[in-house]
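Q: How would the structure tokens look for this protein?
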Amino acid sequence: MAPPFQKCKKDKRSPLYPCEKKRCGHSWTVRYRAPGGRTGSQLEKSFDRWKDASDFNIKVENDKREGVYSDPKLGKVSFIPYAKECIDSPARGEGTKSYQIGFLYNWVKPVCGNRTVASVEKGDLQQIANNMVKEGLAASTIGTHYKSLRSIFNKAVSEGRRRTNPCDGVELPWGASMAVDEDAIPNSSQVSQLASLMREDNKLAVWLMAGLGLRVSEALGFSIESVRGSIVRLRHQLYRYASREDYGKYLVKLKHRKEGEYRDIPLPNRVANQIDQHVDKFGSIEVEGQHLLFSGAASSAAPVLTLAGMTERWKSRVRAVGMDFTPHDLRHYYASQQLAGGANIHEVSRWLGHKSIQVTVDVYGHLTEDAGERGRAIMDAVLPVTC
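A: Here is the predicted structure in token form.
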């Protein structure tokens, strides 16, 4: 750690050099490096008093040692462009990038659009979370977005752009609020009605979501090759922005899975029959070596039915008759029926393709109503009579 010095006495480039006065009143300079050793950029700051310069010098070294150093200059960059640059990392898939950039511009920019990296505060991020709760976004969706925000600010901290992560302490709607509303889950009769409302060539999508628990993008990316006898082996899903001509690809890896990974789901006979009937009547569309089952609109650039196209058709037919169900509610139907029928929640979690069993428990755990009765019966059977 170099001590503070006066340029007028040490730096020949200074217009004040050489200064012969012992107490000249000229400023004191601290030269220091950003974290990274000799690779860190060399910086300097001037003070009117030697004591202030010395205190700053000590603070910088302590902050670097404790890993909380931040350089005000580095923190002055605008947050939105910085966050977008972080999201554009090669480590992120194209689907993930589009999803996170959408969140950045739709939710973060209205609150933090004029903020620098260093000036974003916990209150700003809490406001964003509150806004999403008011708009009815699922707790799991909000949590996913905040994980990406946290990683961006962790990077900013590691680069010395700010001292702490403002995500710390933000209250997110996890826990009980993740639980699916039982009144929002369609019953079997309503599932049948939903299928009847769809176009003939789209009815199968309802049965894939309700009978296999598929996400919408997984149902639209379902291929004939996925059927393996009594199981479905899912390897890919339709890219959510498949209609974008600049992307040039339609199928991407499954959510929460690495490239090449898959998940197996038991194939009910009734769903298998629906698949056979659909293929006999409407055939398939070959895309990237897979035979998909839902063709796109004539006006669409995509040869297959995209997420936007499915949403439009769902609204025009289902919402038009006053039904408030969404396609994702069919996935809730699958999970609730499996659990009500006695399926193990670990198996259901695996079939649904959740990131962890904790997500399944948080969302559907309350639907296993007989769990308490089973627990009582088990303990009554093993406890000694003297208890």
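DSSP finds 15 helices and nine strands in the chain.

The mean pLDDT is 84.

Upvote if useful.
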